[in-house]
Amino acid sequence: MLKVFWIILFIFTIMVHPYAHAEESLAIESLISPYTRLMIFSPHPDDESLGAAGLIQRVLKEGGRVKVVFMTNGDGFPEGVEREDRISNPTAKDYRRYGDERRVEALKAVTTLGMKERDVIFLGFPDGGLSSLHKKSLAGSPAYKSPFTLESCPPVSEIIIPHTDYTGHDLINELKRVIAAFRPTLVATTPPQDEHPDHSSTYFFVKEALTRMSQKNPNIQPRVVTFLIHFGQWPIAQGAGSGSHLYVPEGFPDKGTQWVSLSLNPEEVVTKRKAILEYYSQILVMARYLLSFARSNELFIMEN
Q1: Looking at residue 296, which CATH number applies to its domain?
Q2: Sorting pLDDT into bands at 50, 70 and 90, what band is 107?
Q3: Residue 200 lies in a domain
Q4: For the chain, what is the domain count?
Q5: What is the pLDDT of residue 9?
Q6: Range of the structural domain that residue 212 is part of
Q7: Is the peptide bond before 191 cis (omega within 30 degrees of 0)?
Q8: Which of 94, 140, 278, 304 is most buried, taking the most CB atoms under 10 A from its CB?
Q9: Strand, helix or coil at 224?
Q10: Is residue 13 part of a domain?
């Protein structure tokens, strides 16, 4: 009988091992206080709500400040434009209008989470083009032209530094500017292992901007956490529902990753779901996937 018990215990240990190291909720809660200045870099409008809506609410509840920076306006999404407008060949004007709509949705989502519109920054860089900018991030590189909007620079209303173009060099400079202005103590963005090219490239740009900033101003060295959005069939493959738990995806490449889980209370989960639903243009295309993030916890990777 004792032998059977140990066999069962061993099997159970193997089953829970991939998830066990994601339960250190105190590791991230210790970073939240009235003095927290959280800056979230979201590749597209909706990523901030999918990955960090609970974290945003928690920081605000504790009296801290939150700033969300959207790298792109999410205007390069052919399936979304075609589905919403019921057209088969969208024009550059259609894509630009779609970006404007997603911008409005983003403001509704973050205000649902308790933020003020003044704490939102849109950089307006090319959706679907950040990986191209990553490959050519040196000064003097030619400007990238979006195949969707046909633009080679951000909208005038979103340019922070005059004469900014779609280049990696200019994007890093704009990131440095917003970081210096806000002076975050905690930064959250998508990890390099995220399978969406815009997401992994966002990590590169944010880290590069932070590195350059710390060299000039050692006082600006925020703690960095990342939140995963795209990785195979995760998290849909784990089921869904606001009462279910979000677990670390199987097969994640870095076995030494320090995953931490932030438990959300029922009110935070409901509010997160409401924020996600503000992205009507995306709900039309992938509602089940988006809502599968509205669970009883959020997962983050702690950087060393």
Answers
A1: 3.40.50.10320
A2: very high
A3: yes
A4: 1
A5: 38
A6: 18-302
A7: no
A8: 278
A9: strand
A10: no
